[in-house]
Write a structure and sequence with these properties.
- This protein is 34% helix and 15% strand.
- It contains eleven helices and twelve strands.
- It has two domains: 2-99 and 298-317, 3-Layer(aba) Sandwich (Rossmann fold), CATH 3.40.50.720; 102-290, 3-Layer(aba) Sandwich (Rossmann fold), CATH 3.40.50.
- It has a seven-stranded parallel beta sheet, with helices on both faces.
- The longest helix has 19 residues, at 299-317.
- The chain has 327 residues and is α/β, with parallel strands linked by helices.
Length: 327
């Protein structure tokens, strides 16, 4: 069985994939480039495809099917970049990855604390030797009510870790978890928004969650709320968020992911004029942190992503079931 990996990073993922190939006995080839119709031929002779968060359109999927690819795994938890209906119609099995939840959960908590303590402004002023205190008064997370939207593995870990800070925790999820009883109080989304000093998003990027935080939701939020998004960019209506930041309804935002970030992150675009005005506007605000979708980026998580997605492809090749398959 042979795997072809696209957009494989030679400085971290390659080492893990190479070690797995020797451990589990499979062949592989790779490219650092994202899959396109122009380079699809590179996968000729491969049974399985490993990708990252790049759009997989029906046309692209059809090309890979014609090349003999029978399964695709994305080295990410999210899989909304893959046209699942097209893949199913073509007989291509699809899988995603899983990795320890602590990396993203703790990054989200870090973003909360950075926003509450105005770290972006403090560091920017310090860089020009302005060490004054005026305008930099922060807030301690321990006295905050934090609303956690989505209590899957990552959201639940956020809840557990936040309790160590002594703050009050609210949660919203269509499927409440019994194991979080006593750690968080489940409420409606409206109740969570109205009562929370900080709102952190950990819901999946499903169609029904598109713009779950829009103008109406932001208007119902507690004035001055801090919004953190280490989930999916599509959860937030960016235009509405910009309006709410400008009006002061949202006091600060810390975003590891934003809308329309494809073809930006994980690439060196330092010499390019970027076609993303929303990112430019958000980045210009002193009370907004925009990090390049890297909450997952720890050694433990990267190894887990490569191992999980690769094990799914091996299961596909053997005609077996795998918990990573997207149904």
């Amino acid at each position: 069985m042979k795997i072809f990996a696209y957009a494989l990073r030679p400085y971290d993922e390659l080492g893990y994939l190479d070690a797995l190939s020797r451990e589990l006995g499979f062949g592989y080839d790779w490219t650092p480039d994202y899959p396109t119709l122009d380079n699809a031929h590179l996968a000729a002779g491969a049974d399985m495809l490993s990708i990252i968060t790049n759009p997989m359109t029906p046309e692209l999927l059809g090309t890979y099917r014609d090349l003999g690819v029978r399964g695709i795994a994305t080295r990410s938890i999210g899989y909304d970049h893959i046209d699942l209906d097209a893949a199913r119609s073509l007989g291509i099995r699809v899988a995603h990855a899983a990795y320890p939840p602590e990396g993203v959960a703790n990054y989200a908590i870090m973003l909360m604390m950075m926003a509450l303590r105005k770290v972006k402004l403090v560091l920017a002023q310090a860089a020009v030797q302005d060490f004054s205190l005026a305008g930099k008064l922060g807030r301690d997370i321990s006295g905050c009510t934090v609303g956690v939207v989505g209590t899957g593995r990552i959201g639940a870990t956020v809840v557990r870790h936040l309790r160590g800070f002594g703050c009050r925790v609210l949660a919203f999820d269509p499927c409440p978890r019994d194991d979080l009883a006593g750690l968080a109080t489940y409420v409606t989304l409206d109740e969570l928004l109205a009562s929370s000093d900080v709102v952190t998003l950990h819901a999946p990027g499903l169609p029904e969650n598109h713009h779950m935080i829009g103008a109406a939701e932001l208007a119902r939020a507690k004035r001055g709320v801090v919004l953190v998004n280490a989930g999916r960019g599509t959860l937030v209506d960016t235009a509405a968020l910009v309006d709410a930041l400008e009006s002061g309804q949202v006091g600060a935002a810390a975003l590891d992911t934003i809308e329309n970030e494809s073809n930006l992150y994980y690439l060196d675009r330092s010499r390019d004029v970027l076609p993303n005005r929303d990112r430019a506007v958000l980045s210009a605000m002193p009370n907004v942190i925009v990090s390049p979708h890297m909450a997952f980026y720890t050694g433990e998580d990267v190894e887990g992503m490569v191992r999980g997605s690769t094990s799914a492809l091996l299961a596909f090749a053997a005609g077996e079931e795998t918990p990573y398959e997207v149904r």
